[in-house]
Write a structure and sequence with these properties.
The protein has helices at 2-13, 26-35, 41-53, 59-64, 67-74, 80-103, 108-115, 122-132, 142-152, 160-170, 176-189, 198-203, and strands at residues 191-192, 195-196. The protein is an all-alpha fold and 205 residues long. It has a two-stranded antiparallel ribbon with strand order 1-2. It is globular. The model has no long low-confidence stretch (mean pLDDT 96). The structure holds a DNA duplex (13 and 12 nucleotides).
DNA sequence: GCCCAGGTGGGTA
DNA sequence: TACCCACATGGG
């Protein structure tokens, strides 16, 4: 069932080349995952552009930056005082463990260690592991919940770990990345909060 | 003016 | 566990 949905999306949209970002660096992907919390991606792009202009493009640069400079750069993404603190915490984690994570096989301990970072919840942790480090974990966000509810008969209110396990038990790991990217594409284009648009109706009548 | 956007942490019962 | 709330900007 979930792969039938995936195949329909992939045939229609093709590869999405995720994560969407400027440099594609691991740090930029991770920072984007924090910045996009409850915020439109267009605003994240502004914040990322500000960070680049300010030269704050690495974990070390984040830790060396002044609190006000970091917060000002992050401002367009909203919750900027909170998110600038989160970025510092994540930067410390990167300095301590980035190489180790990169070189290790995925493990729950790895995910748990990320979840202990202030500002990194389940969705952010899974986004970072999947898109920055290429680890086999599935991202559950509001789009996954909506599309899963509309097109796969899932309960959108189900706990995060329940939905994550549901996908991970039914989808081969090599599709985790593209699957979530396609869901986001579908939702932004047609699977809206108010109801499905023409693409949904055409693909999933 | 209002609603929404790829959440998270802290508090309370 | 399950709720509640604060956190803040920008586009439609």
């Amino acid at each position: 069932m979930p792969m039938k949905f995936y195949n329909a999306l992939f045939r229609f949209y093709g590869p999405q080349h995720w994560w969407p970002c400027r440099s594609g660096s691991r740090w930029e992907i991770a920072a984007g995952a924090v910045l996009t919390q409850n915020c439109a991606w267009t605003n994240v792009e502004k914040a990322l552009a500000n960070l680049e202009t300010a030269g704050i493009v690495s974990p070390a640069a984040v830790l060396e930056s002044g609190p006000e400079a970091l917060a000002e750069a992050v401002r367009p993404a909203g919750f900027f005082r909170q998110k600038s603190r989160y970025l510092r915490a994540l930067a410390e984690y990167f300095l301590a463990r980035e190489q180790e994570i990169l070189e290790s096989e995925y493990s729950e301990e790895m995910r748990d260690s990320l979840l202990r970072v202030k500002g990194v919840g389940r969705e952010t942790a899974d986004s970072i592991l999947l898109y920055a480090f290429g680890k086999p974990t599935f991202v559950i966000d509001s789009y996954t919940r909506r599309a899963g509810s509309r097109h796969l008969g899932l309960d959108p209110e189900a706990p995060y770990e329940v939905l994550r396990s549901w996908f991970m038990q039914r989808v081969p790991p090599q599709y985790f990345n593209e699957y979530h990217a396609l869901i986001v594409r579908l939702c932004k284009e047609s699977c809206r909060k108010g109801g499905c648009g023409s693409v949904c109706r055409r693909l999933f009548p």
